[in-house]
Amino acid sequence: MPELPEVETTTKGLRKTVVGQKILDVWTDLDSKNKRQLDTIKNSAFFKYFKREVIGKKIVGVKRIGKNILIALDSGDTILIHMKMTGHLLFGEYTKKQFSISNSQFSKKKREEIWVPKNDGPLKDPFNRFIHVVFSLSGGKHLAFCDSRKFGKITLIKKSNIKTSRHLSHLGPDPTTRDFLFDDFKKRLNLKPNGKIKSVLMDQTIITGIGNIYSDEILWTSSIHPETKIRYISDKKFREIFFAMIQVLKKGINFGGDSMSDYRNILGQKGKFQIHHNAYLKTSNHCGKKGCSGVIMKTIIGGRSAHFCNKHQKQRWVPYEIADI
Known about the structure:
By secondary structure, the chain is an alpha+beta fold. The protein is built from seven helices and twelve strands.
């Protein structure tokens, strides 16, 4: 799933390409009867409303809240996009094609529409072929949403509802903002004193934006076992985790995100953070920390995988202050 660095990379790319352009049309082939999708474009009735509200509107800004991309329109409304597990946004020239597929049950052929990039280049990466939403823009190019598993979310929020929207109101603070300081970090994590640090870091109601990849890298960097309970973490260790978080997230942004899986930037290109993993998906590899003889192990915490070194991230069953005596 794209995490904070990937979403920030996409947001920066959108600011350079789509701000100032008008939305001329919107297309989607998504269609869901799921009640949880009633206020997203996967619901056909909502899509009609969405299309009516955004066509002819100018994009005036793009920002990020956690893993959500917010595209502000000159009407005051905001398009919210959450890329979920396999989604990413692509910018370029696309053309719509039709093709026929056989329907064996009725022995008929059904006409389907697909969007493909006009020109050769990164947009033709196989991971960029699952186009399910396309915004046609006034500059002659398109903003396309690629999502192989179709879990992504696109909706429209009225200006007055940004803070109270169900899509955003539950989120904790963003760890990369200047006003999010160490004391804020410690206070937020201590809301779940019996929680395991790996799970709490990934809890979007505590702090927002961190997922599986970056939590593993943060804990490897700060030398703490992912199953350590919050109440056992000393003030010194909290500081190490806090500064590791800032360092790792900044590194992820600087490398253009992580493309170990589906993620690509808006030009269809891979990020490079996956080249610099120390723990995530490095099971059985020797630990790369200087002077450490450990091996990267894997466990499951709260239904999610966790990768850690069996030496410098050794589990502690008592508070750090006691263990260090």
